[in-house]
Design brief:
Layout: E1 41-42, H1 71-76, E2 80-84, E3 87-92, H2 96-105, E4 107-111, E5 116-121, H3 125-129, E6 145-151, E7 157-165, E8 170-174, H4 179-189, E9 194-197, E10 201-207, H5 211-215, E11 230-235, E12 238-243, E13 252-258, H6 259-270, E14 275-278, H7 280-289, H8 316-321, H9 327-336, E15 341-347, E16 358-361, E17 366-376, E18 381-388, E19 398-403, E20 406-413
Parallel strand pairs: 1-2, 4-14
Antiparallel strand pairs: 2-3, 4-10, 5-8, 5-9, 6-7, 7-8, 10-13, 11-12, 12-13, 15-18, 15-20, 16-17, 16-19, 17-18, 19-20
Helix pairs in contact: 2-7
């Protein structure tokens, strides 16, 4: 296998090193197996039966479909499979709501091997990466991770990522749907850096309040790990890289393992009574309740970090220096304010408000749009995020969403909808 030290999985992060109190994000999660089905279900209905369809989902005939190392296991567990960013991925096993609730109370296992894993080699790799992100990369300690945003010349977001410092090199984990764009972007702007895509590594996320309990018998060091720590370990005799991170708002771990060993590791984890598998459907509802952004919905090449309310990803040193792509727009928005801002949205009633829905004021004037939306099983009501003008961003502001021609009353709400439970 290639060096597992290469991998650090994608949660969310901290500003500069001491600012853990400013951390507002993290990465993946959960589930519940149902053994009554012998084959995965193709073409699962992803309309109103699911909280929020994956943004990059395309019909099978429109894209080549790759399979992760856990594909056979998904088959055995009776997963409903869908094409997602070029991969055949499980959307659900026992049902989105059941999987979501299991993760919030136990431990859920996610296959997130579709994500892009890149190694950055070179003596100046951290400084070079800072050319294309306002995040603080040179201050990431060895064995630590940090969440960041790649920005383009106009200050828009190319992608969000998590970076790990292994001492000898950096590892980036980013979105599957942006794999090609990220490689081209980094190759264009980074000099003296060897960029290597790792295709022999699988990523497994174990999320939920009982995730540490599951791993402690195999690695006592888990007890000392805190959010965004990352190190080499051994689980069930298998070498892994393990980070205390995730994208659900819960305590949890993201595990990088050689693909040849991924199936064995996943099966051993699922042997624990607290662990059940989870699909992309619950992953989406979990991150939405936690107020975490989805690229392609809440983040795009037109939306800036300031508009996305992700100022905490930009430490003071970087904000003031402005030595990264898109800094002119970002510095201006930091000084004078953006023209729109991401907010939480609480629809009234039980009807979910989906991404793309137009928002207006109660007087019928244009207010913005919904970027993510669905039903939050933990809070037992619809939840959403969207972009509105700053003057409408005050908590409690009344708005109206257009849902298929019907008006749904909404109010601007605090984020997250469900509290974060990261191990500090």
């Amino acid at each position: 296998m290639a060096t597992l030290e290469s991998v650090g999985t994608k949660p969310a992060a901290e500003g500069e090193r001491a600012d853990r109190s400013e951390i507002s994000q993290a990465s993946m999660t959960e589930g519940a197996p149902r053994f009554g089905q012998s084959t995965p279900q193709r073409g699962a209905n992803m309309s109103d039966s699911l909280p929020n369809p994956p943004h990059d989902s395309l019909p099978v005939e429109d894209q080549p479909v790759a399979m992760t190392a856990l594909h056979q296991l998904h088959f055995e567990l009776g997963a409903k499979m869908v094409p997602f960013a070029g991969w055949d991925m499980p959307i659900q096993f026992d049902g989105v709501i059941a999987e979501h609730q299991w993760c919030r109370s136990n431990a859920g296992l996610f296959d997130v091997s579709h994500m892009a894993v890149l190694e950055l080699h070179g003596d100046d790799a951290a400084a070079q990466l800072e050319k294309v992100t306002p995040a603080g990369i040179t201050t990431v300690d060895v064995g630590r991770q940090r969440y960041g945003l790649l920005t383009n010349e106009s200050g828009g977001i190319v992608d969000d990522f998590i970076v790990t410092n292994w001492g000898s090199h950096l590892t980036m984990v980013s979105n599957a749907s942006r794999r090609t764009e990220d490689l081209q972007f980094l190759s264009q702007h980074l000099t003296g850096v060897d960029i290597v895509e790792k295709t022999d590594i699988s990523l497994i996320a174990l999320q939920g309040p009982k995730s540490a309990e599951v791993l402690l018998p195999e690695d006592a060091g888990i007890a000392n790990d805190v959010f965004l720590d990352n190190r080499m370990s051994e689980l069930f005799g298998i070498q892994v890289a393990i980070g205390r991170s995730g994208y659900t708002g819960e305590d949890g771990f993201e595990i990088a393992v050689a693909s040849d060993n991924a199936d064995q590791l996943a099966r051993r984890l699922l042997d624990h009574p607290a662990v059940r598998p989870v699909g992309l459907g619950a992953r989406d509802t979990l991150r939405l309740e936690a107020g975490l952004c989805l690229y392609g919905n809440d983040l795009t090449t037109e939306i800036s970090p300031v508009e996305a309310d992700l100022r905490w990803t930009m430490p003071k040193r970087r904000r003031e220096a402005g030595d990264f792509l898109g800094s002119a727009r970002i510095q201006t928005e930091l000084e004078t304010g953006p023209t729109r801002i991401r907010v939480g949205i609480a629809p009234q009633g039980r009807r979910p408000v989906r991404d793309g829905a137009a928002l207006t004021t109660i007087d019928g004037e244009g207010a913005g749009f919904v970027s993510s939306g669905g039903f939050g099983p933990t809070v037992d009501r619809p939840v959403a995020m969207g972009y509105v003008s700053p003057g409408l961003a005050t908590i409690g502001t009344e708005l109206v969403a257009d849902v298929r021609g019907k008006e749904v009353q909404c109010t601007v709400s605090e984020l997250p909808f469900a509290p974060h439970n990261y191990r500090r």
